[in-house]
Amino acid sequence: MADPELERIRQKRMQELMGGQGGGEMTPEAQQQKEEQRQSQEEQRRMMLAALLQPAARERLNRIALVKPDKARGIEDTLLRMAQRGQISERCQKSG
């Protein structure tokens, strides 16, 4: 019962990772479009997290991201998955 939007984002990210390994060159227009999509996905992700987390929790997660970006990304992924599954029904007081 995954959210179709998150699944689409995951598939896009997987395609991006696979495309980067292939070494194929892209036209400037295609690169720009890909960058715009990536920015749009990141903005949507930030908006979902903002809706989930209280300001203090967002601040704490941002401090974690400064030191350990991968750890923060994992925490964000976990929070988004939990929200999609209905395991989080109200704004989180704390993260991580």
How does this structure look, described?
With 96 residues, the chain is mostly helical. α3 (55-67) runs antiparallel to α4 (69-84). Helix content is 76%, strand content 0%. The protein is built from four helices and no strands. It has helices at 4-22, 28-52, 55-67, 69-84. It has a domain at 55-96. The longest helix has 25 residues, at 28-52.
Summarize the structure.
With 96 residues, this protein is mostly helical.
Question: How are the SSEs placed, and which strands pair?
Answer:
Layout: H1 4-22, H2 28-52, H3 55-67, H4 69-84
Helix pairs in contact: 3-4
Helix content: over 70%
Q: What is the approximate shape?
A: globular
Cα radius of gyration in angstroms: 15 Å
Average of per-residue pLDDT values: 83
- Number of strand elements: 0
Beta-strand share of residues:
under 5%
What is the straight-line distance between the termini? 24 Å
Instruction: Tell me the number of helical segments per DSSP (H or I, 4 or more residues long).
Output: 4
Question: Order of helices and strands, N to C?
Answer: HHHH
As residue ranges, the low-confidence spans are none
Main sheet makeup: none
Structural class: mainly alpha
